[in-house]
Task: structure prediction
Amino acid sequence: MDLSTIKVCIFDVNGVLIDSNRANARAMARSFTDDPATLHLIEELYLELTGIDRGSKIRIIQERVMRRPFEGVGAVQETVAGIHGPGSLDPRVQRGPGAAR
Result:
């Protein structure tokens, strides 16, 4: 494919042009677990929760399926620091171009 011939590129990130809800639900489920039965439960619940914000969906999945409360941003930061090292969340650490703070 010659990319120079492309005039317009449309990205559908919210399922308006293509029904991507199932794929989105599957991806969300995979972020929680690899267990096939739990994947199915999360995917179905995620689809039932269509129309509410993603953060609320995550909290509901944590409570109803994972059976533990969402621990908030602090827990996420601790996890990131555990994976990438203690300086990974330090605002003084240099990030590459385009990296969000």
